[in-house]
Amino acid sequence: MTLDVIGEAGFNYQFNALDPNGEINELEEALTRLMHSPQSHRQSVIRLLQAEIPILSFLPTPGAKIMDEARGKMMEIARQLLVNSQADIKAGGISATKRDLLSLLVQSNATRGIQEDQRLNDTDVIAQIPTFFVAGDETTSIATALALHALSVHPSVQSKLREELLSIARDDPTMDELNSFPYLENVVREVMRVYPPVAFSKREAMEDDVLPLSKPYLDRNGKSYDTISYVQIVF
Length: 235
Prior knowledge:
The protein is mainly alpha-helical. The chain is about 60% helix and about 5% strand. The longest helix has 29 residues, at about 65-90.
């Protein structure tokens, strides 16, 4: 179901994941290889090792070819989704029934009056598509499972939370009602703190930068610094 929601809301793409008679499409197959296959699990461990021992990045690894092929297929489909979205907008804009994130992003990116340095090029737009998948695929189910686990090992918290939730007289509370429960808010925040579905996100700086320090420090030669530069971090 998560794939169907991401496909519809993100890119107006039909996965048909809940259709028992539906065939697995190319994008679903590529995502499965990238995120749920044995090769992807091995690659996750290998990437962690490569981060600690950079020289390992130059060595061939098991399953790397399969992962590269799956990644290439996903990017190929992402490019086609972008082309389709751009064509729809040129033909007449976004209809009331088609307001997926990709279409909204493309339309906003094409709006007149936006400075050129604030526009996303096609490569940047395409890069958002895998981000949507990674951010949305199973994160909700993982968070729910971890929340249930946390409540099972803390029965007093479970009882207090149940008591607060049972104060609602109906089975379909509104968001305003749910947001009014302070203990529910605390439980959700604590679960996200202790058991985050996405524990970390690796980012790469696009340009060198300088980090200011609250207090200067002395290097081994006695020279004082009040900032940390990129070169100093590396060497």
